[in-house]
Amino acid sequence: MPYIIGIDGGGTKTTCAFQRVENYNHLMRCQSIIVGDGTNVLTVGVETMKKRLHSLINEGLKVHDIQPSEVIGICAGIAGTRLEKDRLSVVLELKQIAKELHLHEDIGITVKSDLLIALRGAMHPENQEGILVISGTGSNAIGLSRNGDLAFNGGWGHILGDEGSGYSIGLQALSAVCKAYDCRESPTQLTGMILARLQLATEHDLVQYIYRDVPNKQVIASLARLVIESSIELDPVAVNILKEAGNELVDLVRGLRRKSDAFHELTPVTVAGSIFMYSDIVRNQFMEGLKVHRLGCYQPAFADPVNGAVIVAMEAITKQHL
């Protein structure tokens, strides 16, 4: 009974799905799941990535009572593999894992970026093209055309880009607190909420906190939750920050349209990430922007990224056995 493995390797967690080939249905989500620590090759390193993938695959084989030799294909979508050299390093490590765990000797191994498998999971299986916009700690977008070409936008990181992301929203909130203190912007309840969260006494303490203590980007991104909470209470400053974030995310789609004439106003556009999940304002502003500017047709995400990895794995072994 042959099986395939789909892997979604992110920065904070890794999800492995074990799919029996003969039971595969592209309209159903895989239920045999194992979850472990993150495997972003750029942040945890090749050695740690390999160790964690080895452990997860081995655990999944035992939990789901699968013989190693039954595994004929793996697709891994690993964060940090946009560059070819990084992708190839993951391919080599997975081949070594396959040998160590005694997987099928002719196993097919495919490594893609985490963005691609997220897109394939989010797209409805019947669609041949689609765009995915992600807004979490950072922000980016990926588009797949009917002829199989990929286009990317955003993903420049929190210093050069990440507009519309949790980090950008948190930074805008900090700026709004400073402007409110200077009477350059309306007073906002974000002032008290942010000072309390950061355990600071006054606005002036922000200077040392930002420039001397240098918080990491996840801490600043976490402030987006306060902005969302404040927007629910209709704080106008918070509402404006989130609306602008929605507009910035619309611009990611606009950029893809400018990069490729393969996308059009009927191209399905779906979203992922914590900001879209928790902020109705961002999501609604984004959807309205798509509609007004005729940039695409919004669709809810069909499934999770790991299901996208399963889809790609199935496609790969189908081609291999033709």
TrEMBL record:
Source taxon at top rank: Bacteria
Pfam families with a match to the protein in the record: BcrAD_BadFG (PF01869)
Entry-linked InterPro entries: ATPase_BadF, ATPase_NBD, Euk-type_GlcNAc_Kinase
ATPase BadF/BadG/BcrA/BcrD type domain span: 5-301
Name of the protein: ATPase BadF/BadG/BcrA/BcrD type domain-containing protein
Species of the source: Paenibacillus oryzisoli
